[in-house]
Each structure stands twice: as structure tokens, then as C-alpha cells.
Amino acid sequence: MVKEGLEMKFLGLLTCCFLAFGCYLYAENDVVYHVDPIDNPNIVSIVASAAPSSTVYVAKGEYKITSSLAPANGVRIIGATGKYEDVIINAQGKCRVILADKGKNYISGMTLTGGYLHATKSANATQGGGIKLTGGGVITNCRITACSSGNFISGIGMYLNSSYCYDVLIDNCTHAATPNSTATSQESTGYIVSLYGASVMDRTRVVRNIIKHGKHKQDDSWGGVLSIANSGATYASSCIVRNCEIAHNIFENYLRTGKGTTFGSIGVSIGAGILENCTVVSNVVLNAESAVSGTSNDEGACGVVVYPTNNGTIRNCHIADNFYNGNLRNYSTIINNASNASYHKRFVYCCTYPANANLPNSCVITSDSKYRIDERGHVRIEKKSPLIGAGQLQSWMADAKDVYGKIRVRSGSVDIGAVEYIPDTSFFMVR
């Protein structure tokens, strides 16, 4: 047993050494494919022909495609360097980048860019411009950027259904509904990221995306940045979004006429599941107008919208500085004329502004949550922020990290939001 243990340790060390030099050890029965931009560049056909549960390693370079990568069940597609900026899959605005709907696919170490879905209601054309990932798949250590589409689309950047997303950056994607359209019956729906089923999204940044709308005449003209199980039978889902940053997104040119009081949202729309330890800040609605009969209120909610009749919970979230036409509009629970004050109790241990008497006592109500945006566009908590240590501890936090990879729990407490405060450290030399 001792000898066997030493052999296993040696094999593990040897594996690490091989990985460090760009080589790989595989199990005897592994089927491995290699893509190289010079010698073996046809990534679409290689992925399509890869056997179920095999691995496709993609060498450094840019791969321009005109049809989607469509892996079989369990196929892993991995950027060989481990740095997503080194491997670029560019759909050039001609197609979705990856259609991973066969189940248990693993996507890692790549940039997915230029994904586009034509705005129709046909099957398979409405979900995931950058990636559609279903059936227990995983996407990690990736960037999804510059994807676009118009009406009908769920997840212009990413669509997850009972799948997992970790350490992903989703930025500069665009939803553009047809200008001056008269879309009805949710035809103008468009979210940058959509989650359904039992999906989990962790340590992911959804930033600097744009949602553009035309004129819509019905009360169900939705659109925004992140949708968590907010339609149909998916209300019963158990999606979890943790340690994520939803920031600096813009929703513009929104005009509604007709009947009803449904909101046009910008930040997070949650029908079921959990949104916890997330930061939803600096999202903006511009140029919005409403001429809806039966209401005198201009509509729109920038930070977080929760469907009150379902089981969505918002915990330990930092929701601040989200603006609707120049006015703070950080959260709402008023959907389809439901305004019962008890619905506000779905927000627990959150920090938001302005004050609302219906929010539970666990929430921090403040006009200054003392955070800043650094030179890289990252959210940073400042000293003496009311966010520090004000969150509710959860069992999953024991070994967790925040959105930037820092330890999630320090000194036995957790901060509100996606970012954990790290105090400045001073060093003194004693002679």
C-alpha cells in the first residue's frame, strides 16, 4: 500500500511536469484530437467528428468559422495553453459559436466571439449566440464577447439549461431589436445571459453589454442582461447564481405603448432560484418612454426584478447606482400589478438604496456603500464600507472564492456582494 501510494504521488508529479511543458498524459483509452491553425485548422469538422467523451485540444491561434462547433455527447473542447486570450473562435457574425446541446460537454480556455443568431422563432435559433450549453455541460475559464442578435433571443451571449458556468467573462455583446418594431407576445425578448433548469453560474462577470429596443405595443416586451428562470414552467427551477458581477450594462431607446404594467428590466430578472453574493451596480436605462394605458408611471427596473409569485431569493447582494432615465431604480417586485409589500422580503442581507420600509431588517439601507471602480473596471470595496461582514454565512462558502478569485470568507464573516474586501497590509522592519 505504501509503495502504491508513492507510485501514485510520483505519477501525479510527473503529470504536473508534463502539463507545465505543454504536453499531456492521457489514460490508455482516451481519444484525443488536436487542432492547430497551420497544420490542422478545420476545427468545425474536427469537433463534429470527435467521438463521444473524447477531448479536442485547440492550439493557440484564431479560428474563423461559418458554422457552429457542435460536439457530440461528453466531448471536451479545451484551449491548450489554458489562457482564453490565446485561443479565439470567431464566428464572424455568421452563426452561433458553440452548440453544445448533446449533454455533458466541457468547454475551457477559449474566447468565443462574433456569434450571431438570426432573429426568428424557429427551433434552435432562439438560444445562445455565443454558446448554448445543456444537459450537465460546463463552461469555464472562457470569454464570450461581441455576440449579437435581435428579437426572440434568450442568451445572446450564453444560454444555460441545467449546466454550469465558472470563471467566465461576458462582455460587449449586443441585443438590438428591430427599430420601431411593433413586436408582440414576447417577440422583443432579449437577454445577454439566460439560465434555466438547475443551472449554476459562479464567479462570472457580465459587463459592458448593450440592449437596444425599438417601439413595442404590448405589455410583455422584456429584455435585459441576466434572466434567471423567468418564464413558463421554468419558474419551478433551481438555478443558482453566485459571486457574479452585473455592471456597466446599458439599455437604450425603449418605448412602450398599449396596455399593462410589465417592466422593461436591465440588470437581473429572477423568477425562481437564488441570486446570492452578487454585485449589480452601474447599469443604466437611457432614452426610455412609456405611453401605457392604465398607468401614469414610467416603467423600468434597472437593478433586480423578482417575480413575486414564485420562489426567487436575493441574498447577500450589492444593488446600487442603477439608473432609469437619471433616477435610481435599483429593484422592483411589482410585476403584473402585484405590489404586496411581503414580496420585498425575498431580499435578505442585501445592500441597496434608496430605503424601503418593506425590506427586511437584515438588509443594509445606505446612501453610500463605499465601493469604487478601479482602472481595470473591477469593483472594489473600500475601507469602512457597510458591505464588510454584513452578509449571511452559507455552507457553500467554506472553500469558495469571490468573483476575482479571493477567499470568500475572512475572519469568520462574509461581505455583501461579489467582491470580498481585502484590507491594506503594511510591513514594518524592526531592528
Characterization of this structure:
By secondary structure, this protein is mostly beta strands. It is 6% helix and 36% strand. It has two helices and 40 strands. The strands form five sheets. The protein has a 19-stranded parallel β-sheet that branches. Strands 9, 12, 15, 18, 19, 23, 27, 31 and 32 form a nine-stranded mixed β-sheet that branches. Strands 6-10-13-16-20-24-28-33 form an eight-stranded parallel β-sheet, with no helix packed on it. The longest helix is centred in the first third of the chain and has 19 residues, at 2-20. The protein is globular. It starts with a helix and ends in a 17-residue tail after the last strand. The relative contact order is 0.07. The model is unreliable at 1-29, 180-188, 291-299 and 332-340 (pLDDT under 50).
Secondary-structure blueprint of this entry?
Elements: H1 2-20, E1 32-35, H2 43-49, E2 55-58, E3 61-64, E4 76-79, E5 87-90, E6 98-100, E7 106-108, E8 111-113, E9 116-117, E10 131-134, E11 138-145, E12 148-149, E13 153-161, E14 164-171, E15 174-176, E16 190-196, E17 200-207, E18 210-212, E19 215-216, E20 224-228, E21 240-242, E22 245-247, E23 250-259, E24 268-270, E25 274-276, E26 279-281, E27 284-293, E28 304-306, E29 313-315, E30 318-320, E31 323-324, E32 327-328, E33 331-332, E34 347-348, E35 351-352, E36 364-365, E37 371-373, E38 379-381, E39 409-410, E40 413-414
Parallel strand pairs: 1-2, 2-4, 3-5, 4-7, 5-8, 6-10, 7-11, 8-11, 9-12, 10-13, 11-14, 12-15, 13-16, 14-17, 15-18, 16-20, 17-21, 17-22, 18-23, 19-23, 20-24, 21-25, 22-26, 23-27, 24-28, 25-29, 26-30, 27-31, 28-33, 29-34, 30-35, 35-36
Antiparallel strand pairs: 31-32, 37-38, 39-40
